[in-house]
Amino acid sequence: MQDFIAANIQIDGKEQQELLEELDVRARIEKLLIHIKNEEEISKIQQNILEKVNQKVSKNQREFFLRQEMNTIQMELGIKKDPKDDLIKKYHDKFKKLSPFMNDEAKEKVADDVGRLAGLDMMSPEFSLTRTYLDVVFALPWKEGKKQNLDIKAARKILDHDHYGMKDVKNRILEFLAVKDLKKDDKGAILCLVGAPGVGKTSVGTSIARALGREYFRFSVGGMRDEAEIKGHRRTYIGAIPGKIIKGLQTVKTNNPIFLIDEIDKMGESYQGDPASALLEVLDPEQNNHFRDNYLDLPFDLSHILFIATANSISTIPTPLLDRMELIEVSGYTSEEKVRIGKKYLVPKSLKKERAYRR
């Protein structure tokens, strides 16, 4: 009997062997009782845990059903509207406003997603994913941006006000802008400001945006090794998000901003893809009128964006990208120019900040 009990309780082989080797019946029963007591304690602990889990699940289920009943009663009495119906109506209104500016593929895809969302339960993960996707789609500037009215004289004043010297650079920029204005589109070469760190390349890009009166978005690609940062992640991945281009358009809320791509000469390459190739699709005027972000998975026209790049050296810029850029070299300043810049720009700027801080 003792051996039968020992064989049917949860003890390891070594302890079972010790019980078999114990010839004293009393001692063997005492050892067996210790193991039975341990088994009983473990069973009690497991039972307690199971009861607590069941209570918690039952409580959550009860609260869920009560909320559902309360919402149903409120909607029947007209006190509360169904949040899902309100959301679907809002998406239908947005789609109606934006559909004239969408291409045929985008219209069909977005209409299908809005219809599918109406048939999903609000508690399902797919509902949340589809809703997030539609929020991204409707946040994009499908409409045409505000018209550009370029005044070369005003643009020169802004460049002169923001930057000391750099006469050749300013002239090249004004020529570039004048040609763009005559063409009435932004297709063609991309400006690339090349020079040592600290010579004002990024601030020149900001001044160009001010001169054109267009929205401005800057992002750096220095050290970038994953092409998904440019083209986004596919929606099938958990935590998928759009790339920097689509994010930038969501931020500026216009389809003809100025995008400044900093440190284009410092992009890397890894097993996650080649971001330079992805950027080529963004900058190439023959491809970017139907750019397809992996997350969005819809063609979007980037041809109205004016792209400006900055680099410290052209030696590390991939040749296909370099061929599509118009290079403007931004040289450093002499000691005399640095003194004048300090007096005319830096000191007044610092004093203005100090006065604002004291207030």
Description:
The protein has 359 residues and is α/β, with parallel strands linked by helices. It is 57% helix and 8% strand. A hairpin with a 6-residue loop joins strand 4 and strand 5. Helix 4 (83-98) packs antiparallel against helix 5 (104-118) and helix 7 (152-162) packs antiparallel against helix 9 (201-212). The model has no long low-confidence stretch (mean pLDDT 81).
Instruction: Tell me the β content.
Output: 5-15%
**Helix/strand structural class:** alpha/beta
What would you report as the Rg, rounded to the nearest angstrom? 34 Å
Shape: elongated
- How many beta-strand elements? 7
Distance between the termini: 91 Å
- What's the story with the biggest beta sheet? 5 strands, parallel
Count of helical regions: 14
User: Could you tell me the mean pLDDT?
Assistant: 81
Report helical residue fraction.
Answer: 55-70%
Q: In sequence order, what are the helices and strands, one letter per element?
A: HHHHHHHHEHEHHEHEEEHEH
Show unreliable segments: none
Numbering strands along the chain, what is their spatial order in the largest sheet?
Answer: 2-3-6-1-7
